[in-house]
Amino acid sequence: MTEYNIIRLGQHGDGIAQGPVFAPITLPGEVVTGALEGQNLKDVRIVTPSSDRVAPPCRHFKSCGGCSLQHAADDFVADWKVSIVRGALDAHGIETDFRPIQTSPAKSRRRATFAAKRTKKGAMAGFYSRGSDTVIEIPDCQLIHPELMSGLDVAKEMAMVGASRKAALAVTVTLTSNGLDVAVAQGKPLDGPLRQILAELCDRLKLARLSWDGDVIGTRLPPLQRFGKADVVPPPGAFLQATKHGEAALLAAVKEAVGDAGSVADLFAGCGTFALPLSQNARVFAVEGDAAMTNALDQGWRKTKGLKPLKAEARDLYRRPILPDEMRDLDAVVLDPPRAGAERQVAEICTSHVPRVAYVSCNPVSFARDAQMLVQAGYSLDWVQVVDQFRWAAHVELAACFTISGGRPPELNLTAF
Description:
The protein is α/β, with parallel strands linked by helices. The chain has helices at residues 74-90, 150-162, 192-204, 244-258, 275-278, 291-302, 324-327, 343-352, 364-376; strands spanning 3-9, 15-17, 21-23, 31-37, 40-48, 97-103, 111-118, 123-128, 135-137, 169-176, 179-185, 209-212, 215-219, 225-227, 230-232, 263-267, 283-288, 310-314, 332-335, 356-361, 379-388, 397-404.
């Protein structure tokens, strides 16, 4: 049988041999065999293991598709994730200081989307198996927070009443201050009888909130998330950092990057992850494309005493980026865009010469592209903080600090809004 030498890891965490040939659950330096199907190696057998190979901490790892890197030592994964960001910047000729990576602990994920389906004997819930649509039960999952595990039983209950025999539900369960916030998708059409059954389930299971394809069925208690001093009720399915540890690490980096700025814009602000804590010390202009999230942010600010002025605006920053005239009074800008990055918005920032930019990214490639624009406009990339809150997955996040030499021209330092 042909042997393959694994050269490196790909962007999804799979090993890559010359060809390229993709071999899951392998590591650089390993010699492996398997059945080649196209470019993918199936039924992989390790001939020569890497010294970085470890026993997976979760007994579900071999079959479950929720994690891809449990076979690798923590130090290896940390170095690999930093190298991904470093490599993306190197491709644009950018060098900077890298802070030590911040990695969220096991059993800390506060949100998970379970697949739940009906069976002949009842229902089952878990994650999909690797590379298939088979649902794998995960009673000993080492990834999600222990308080989130009860969401598996909730997902089964939802499947019993609202799943078809052919398709699985997508049941997103989020930890909140008042219990589980459950958002179900891909279920039966919502009608009167189903709505009544679901409302009774929401009460019996003591859920904070239950929604069905975006329609709120019931709210027993507000599903609160705390951002700084403010309590916020996000709309169903709204973006939330994966772990409290990861959120804290990113927030600390953002605060350091903006420094003592008295006036800050938070662009792609979500429900206020950064805007609300920053408003404890600075005037904030928070912009988010989703109107429901913008309203949640605004309500959280209005109900919290002792915060500085905050203006929240719902605006599509891809179509209508904030212009230099709107940034002339700002001391700093925070960016936290989706995976596509913020190319048009960064172009306007380059023209405005806002003194400090804190950039939070979930995609090193689009971040490096935007970083090159800022550097070419005169900004320096002072440091990068890699954050691994998607433990045992290939996903990489980061926060970075940009400053411009000499800061903003004095004549532009006008009274803030």
